[in-house]
Structures are given as structure tokens and as C-alpha cells.
Design goal:
about 350 residues, alpha/beta, eight-stranded mixed beta sheet
Length: about 350
């Protein structure tokens, strides 16, 4: 009871996938991105819930993540690896029937030589300069790729969370030019691209952050709920301080609860001054610095001393915490600590 409880709402996850799936017409397949351990929420449990909802293709970052998803789901679904065919991955790709997204000529040669006939996809660089083949490289190997077991060609939008950004139509134009005449499924859009409209959907979409309750899918249901136990309370007189560095001083008598969690649990120190915890619908501001394992919270205005306070949920989502920390919801989710007791609901 000394650690926080992280509840993952699988029904909310499924509802988010279904909503994003509904943005595309029936000819477009909706996959699911479950990299980074399902955005910090448990790739195995997340993938099982999404498979039950109808997802048949999953995307991970590296082959080791693909192994965990395959263990959870068994055969019958396609698991794509964004990082491609890295040196040393051959046995894992073969034995677990993973589909590497080939990013370079070197990876292409490694794959077709080591695993002739084994399925693969290709990732194209349409301007993000991160992963994928640039136009000249792709043109040089396109004919070879089309003669092999090519399952999908994809690229990734750099600015999809900004609908009016000129990079979006620029990448769309480049992707169309690089894939013109190609007779395999194409994919350009993650969550942000789905919301840009049908022109960006092609044959398959790959929602990620929107599944887990984050922007830019503003209608997403919250998936992660975090409740933290109160260890101790104390009464402060005016002029007393809370936490390291004496950064907060009581202006009047108050009651402070010490909560069991801290930056070792992914609650970033920088968010403290802007963040509250919740007792039901009532916000309780954090006082003083967030330390490694403990946080001070002002509960003076509550009618009772709570056993627990909520940090994540319907009243305050991952993007609210991200705004308070000057970061993004992805970082909040993927940094959720391993000390929490995890509970899966629904699904």
C-alpha cells in the first residue's frame, strides 16, 4: 500500500482505437503502435485488447519489442519493426515471423541475403530526416524490393500535430511521387495524420499516442489513471516551509499531506509549481519541490484526510502534466515508473 496504483483502462483504449478507425473508410486498415512497452502501459496487455478490438497489424520500434508482442498474441497477426533488420536480429525476425521496415540499402541487402523470401516493408524518408530511404536510394532498389516479399511501404509525417504546417502537404506530395505505380499497401499517417483527412490515409493508418489518451486526438478517453497514497499529514504554522530548498512557505496555517511518489516514478520535478492532485473533483496543489520518492500536497481545504490522491485521470490527463512540465504527453506516459501497482480494467 506504500506505492501508487496505476490503472490502465483497456475499455478506453479500445474506444480510442475504434474512434480513430472510424475516421477512415472501410478500405483503409487501422493498425496499432505498441512500441515502448505500449507507451509505458504494458505492450502485452495493450496488444491483446487491441487485437480483440480488431487490430491485425502492430508496430514496434525494435525486434526485442516485437518478441514480447508475439509472445502475447501468438500467430495470426503481423508485427512490424520500425527499426528494420539490424545486425544480429535475423534469427528473431525469422523465428517470430517479424516484418522489418527496411530503412537503407544495407538493411535491404542484409535481409534478402539472410532471409530470402521473408516478408518485409520499406520505410521512405519524405523529409523528416530520421529513418528511411531517400528518393535516390529508393529509386535504386525499388525494382529489387518489388520482386521480393514486400508487404507495405510507409513514411512518417514530421508535423502532423500542426494541421496548417506546410510540411504536411510537402511530405504528402513527396510520398505520392516516391510510391507512384506501386502495387503494395502504403501508409503515411499516425494519429496526427489520421486527423488531417482521408488524403493522408492511403491503405493503412498507424495510430499511436491517440490510442493512449494523448494529443493531437483531443476526443481521446484517458487510459492511464494514477492514484498515490498519503503516508503522513502535518499541520504547519504560517512561515513554515515544505521540502528541499525551502521553496514554498506557508502564508497561513495549513495542512500538508506527504504522498508516496516522486521523480523516480516519472513525476517530473519541474512540473511541481504548476500541478495539483485531486481528491474527487477538488484540486490540491503540490507544495514545495517534488523529490525522488515524496511529494507535499496542500489539503487544508478538504473536509477529511484522504487515503489517496489522484494525479492522472479524468480531471487531469497526460497532456496537462506535460504542459506543466514543458514537455509532451508521450514523455509522461513512457516515464511512468515501475514501482506502481498496475491494475488493468476492462478490455
Amino acid at each position: 500500500m506504500g506505492t501508487g496504483q496505476l490503472t490502465i483502462d483497456l475499455d478506453a483504449l479500445i474506444a480510442n482505437w475504434q474512434a480513430l478507425n472510424a475516421f477512415s473508410d472501410d478500405r483503409v486498415e487501422t493498425a496499432a503502435v505498441v512500441k515502448a512497452d505500449g507507451y509505458g502501459l504494458g505492450a502485452g496487455r495493450v496488444a491483446k485488447a487491441l487485437a480483440r478490438a480488431g487490430a491485425r497489424r502492430f508496430f514496434v520500434a525494435v525486434a526485442e519489442e516485437g518478441a514480447k508482442v508475439r509472445e502475447a498474441l501468438g500467430p495470426g497477426v503481423e508485427i512490424n519493426v520500425f527499426g528494420g533488420h539490424m545486425r544480429g536480429d535475423t534469427d528473431m525476425i525469422h523465428d517470430l515471423d517479424l516484418v522489418p521496415m527496411i530503412n537503407s540499402l544495407d538493411q535491404m541487402l542484409r535481409h534478402v541475403e539472410a532471409l530470402p523470401g521473408h516478408r518485409f516493408g520499406v520505410q521512405l524518408d519524405t523529409g523528416m530526416n530520421r529513418l528511411g530511404m531517400e528518393p535516390a536510394e529508393w529509386q535504386a532498389v525499388r525494382g529489387i524490393a518489388e520482386e521480393q516479399s514486400l508487404t507495405i511501404v510507409m513514411s512518417h509525417l514530421a508535423c502532423a500535430d500542426e494541421p496548417d504546417h506546410p510540411m504536411n502537404p510537402q511530405q504528402l506530395k513527396t510520398f505520392k511521387a516516391m510510391t507512384e505505380g506501386l502495387d503494395v499497401p502504403r501508409s503515411l499517417s499516425a494519429t496526427g495524420g489520421i486527423l488531417l483527412g482521408s488524403e493522408y490515409h492511403f491503405d493503412l493508418t498507424r495510430p499511436g499516442i491517440g490510442l493512449y489518451g494523448g494529443r493531437p486526438f483531443e476526443q481521446a478517453h484517458p487510459v492511464a489513471h494514477l492514484d498515490l497514497p498519503v503516508i503522513q499529514t502535518r499541520e504547519l504554522a504560517a512561515g513554515e516551509t515544505v521540502g528541499y530548498g525551502n521553496t514554498w512557505t506557508a502564508e497561513a496555517p495549513c495542512r500538508i499531506a506527504t504522498v508516496s511518489a516522486g521523480y523516480a516514478d516519472g513525476i517530473q520535478r519541474i512540473m511541481g509549481p504548476m500541478t495539483a492532485m485531486y481528491f474527487g473533483e477538488t484540486p490540491c496543489p503540490i507544495r514545495g519541490r517534488i523529490s525522488m520518492d515524496l511529494i507535499g500536497v496542500d489539503i487544508t481545504h478538504l473536509p477529511e484526510v484522504p487515503d489517496r490522491l489522484s494525479l492522472l485521470g479524468h480531471r487531469q490527463g497526460v497532456d496537462d502534466l506535460a504542459d506543466n512540465a514543458g514537455t509532451i504527453g508521450y514523455e509522461i506516459l513512457t516515464q511512468l515508473g515501475h514501482r506502481y501497482t498496475r491494475r488493468y480494467a476492462g478490455g
